[in-house]
Specification:
- The protein is mostly helical.
- The protein has ten helices and no strands.
- It is globular and about 40 Å long.
- The two termini are 23 Å apart.
Amino acid sequence: MVLVLCILMSAYFIRGITGFGSALISVPLLALSQPLTFAVPLVLALDFTASLVLGGTNRKKAVWGEIKVLLPFGMVGACIGAYALLTLPTTPVLLTLGAFTMFFGFRNIFGLQPTGQLPRSWAIPAGPAGGGAGALFGTGGPPYIMYLTRRLLDKGEVRATFSWLFALEGGFRLSLFLFAGLLFDPKLQIAYGLGLIPMAVGLYTGNKVHLDMTSEGMLRVVGALLVLSGAMLFLKVAV
């Protein structure tokens, strides 16, 4: 449990700096010692809480037009991802999660950030990809963030919009997990209660650091952590 809490504080420290990425950091590391059926619902519940906090403090900056387009597609993807989490064997899911994590890690390290505004029709693939990855891996942020950063110019708008989108879509995923019985594990409930403390500390300290770091530098740090966590998942499967 101590290891779980340390991982959570580190993950939410990153989210406090960048506005996203807590699940990308925490789920692969938690999956080294915990089953995905524990790690994914735990991080989802904490991310849902964090999104309500961050969204509430930046409510006026949220672009609700983008949320209304993404949300229905994200809910469809969440249904598919939740079903896959309960039915697919563990090994291929861990390998896919490792590849998924390392892809975004290398993308950040080498600064492979496309430019130019996307048409709104890109919400059709971005929504199901975000909802599905979120339910299956607990890491639905990258597809949403890639879409929003290509639609919105203001970083504050991206952060607030993502937080409210995740709060709404994440609440739907939580209801799916509740229906599937994944939230009734006493160990998970204890971990959630204890995890609120490192989550709050991580968000607070990360937000402080955010003011003194460049976006490019932080993306590379996050990228290195993602590559490392993805590689550790491959090692876990190999041994």
